[in-house]
Write a structure and sequence with these properties.
Structural class: alpha/beta
Bound molecules: NADP nicotinamide-adenine-dinucleotide phosphate
Largest sheet: 7 strands, mixed
Helix content: 25-40%
CATH superfamily of the largest domain: NAD(P)-binding Rossmann-like Domain
Strand content: 25-35%
Distance between the termini: 24 Å
CATH architecture of the largest domain: 3-Layer(aba) Sandwich
CATH topology of the largest domain: Rossmann fold
CATH class of the largest domain: Alpha Beta
Number of strands: 16
């Protein structure tokens, strides 16, 4: 009998997330009903947001303990009772941290049959690339010649923000943790500069690198780094609020000082977004990302851990910054 390995979140963490908050168990193989499909998980996306979901209701309901850890991924249909979805189809959906899951056929996104590697539907053509593209191009709206600053620059979203900015003829400055990550951001990804927030004075370094001010700041971290960016914005600059990873794995919330004064005197626009807000424009974003990739303007850097059981360590490590590029879990190989 086929078993369904599942990773449960036992309880909401009170402080930092730890491996002891999780348990691996053999669960039952779910049965699809009318209109439903059974999906075998191939890849699971590890996202900072997975931790934020445990902090209370956000754009989705709060994740409490006692159920399978939620998460987005790519899988293959192994049984179908839904019109329009066939056995063998490759789909993107909320697979969760488990081998098999059941979904309404009309709620999954069907992916092209013949495109490989499937990891691209999690990285450049999936949540990472789409978040970067929509956030930068639709919310930040940089113009050629402007300066774009992005935090968590060596991470999954940040790597694309800077590379897209360069492809659109902007100056790209990253912020990342440690000299090695900063060297990767400039030497491998082609950013113009990168600030090591663990070893450098961020506010002073932004001022040195962007003497005319920052036109678009793409914020992935919040708190003191956001504050340092705000005071270095050019007049009428745009602050794209994508996430606040510095606040996800702690009970001590911190905010930037100086609000709203700095927004007023610099005439800034500060706007948050969720990638799904722009679902209807995904085709346009994917076409542009694919074209930039084909033209050699965007590199795809993926950080793939092998095996479902690696998922808890993968998320805890991502929150501590041990990933470079888009982190995901390989649960089963890409089908031929
Ligand atoms: N709005 C949306 O729809 C949307 C969608 C996807 C992701 N996001 C947001 O995008 C951001 C990145 O998420 P991701 O899943 O793609 O992760 P990621 O960038 O691949 O990895 C997270 C990175 O954040 C950095 N980091 C961790 N703690 C930090 C701190 N206290 N201060 C500064 N940097 C810190 C680490 O790099 P260092 O080594 O450089 O510290 C780590 O590698 C998150 O804020 C997430 O919520 C938003």
């Amino acid at each position: 009998m086929t078993t369904n390995r599942q990773i449960l979140l036992l309880e909401q963490p009170k402080g930092a997330l730890e491996e002891s908050h999780y348990e691996l168990r053999d669960g039952p193989l779910p049965e699809p009903g009318d209109g439903e499909i059974l999906v075998r998980t191939l890849l699971i996306s590890i996202d900072a947001a997975n931790r934020a979901w445990m902090q209370g209701a956000t754009y989705r309901k709060e994740m409490t303990g006692g159920s399978v850890m939620e998460g987005y991924g790519v899988g293959q249909v192994v049984e179908s009772k839904a019109e329009g979805v066939a056995v063998g189809d490759i789909v993107a959906c909320e697979v969760g941290w488990q081998d098999y899951s059941v979904h309404l056929g009309r709620r999954v996104v069907k992916l092209p049959h013949d495109y490989r590697p499937l990891s691209h539907f999690i990285s450049i053509l999936g949540i990472a690339g789409l978040t970067a593209w929509h956030g930068l191009m639709t919310v930040g709206r940089p113009e050629a010649g402007e300066t774009v600053l992005v935090s968590a620059a060596a991470g999954s979203v940040g790597q694309y923000v800077g590379q897209i900015a360069k492809a659109k003829d902007c100056t790209a400055i990253g912020i990342a943790g440690g000299p090695e990550k900063c060297a990767f951001v400039t030497d491998e990804l082609g950013f113009d500069a990168c600030i090591d927030y663990k070893g450098e004075h961020v506010r002073k370094r932004i001022a040195e690198l962007a003497p005319g001010g920052v036109n678009v700041y793409f914020d992935n971290v919040g708190a003191d780094i956001l504050e340092a960016a705000l005071f270095n914005m050019a007049e009428r600059g745009r602050v794209v609020c994508c996430g606040a990873i510095s606040q996800y794995d702690t009970t001590e919330m911190a905010s930037p000082r100086g609000l709203p004064g700095v927004i007023v005197f610099k005439r800034l626009r500060m706007e948050g977004f969720i990638v799904t807000d722009f679902y209807n424009d995904n085709d346009k974003a994917i076409a542009d990302l694919a074209a930039m990739h084909a033209a050699g303007q965007i590199k795809v850097v993926e950080d793939v851990l092998e095996g479902l059981e690696q998922a808890p360590r993968g998320l805890i490590g991502l929150l501590a910054g041990d990933n470079v590029g888009k982190r995901m879990i390989r649960v089963a190989p890409d089908p031929d």
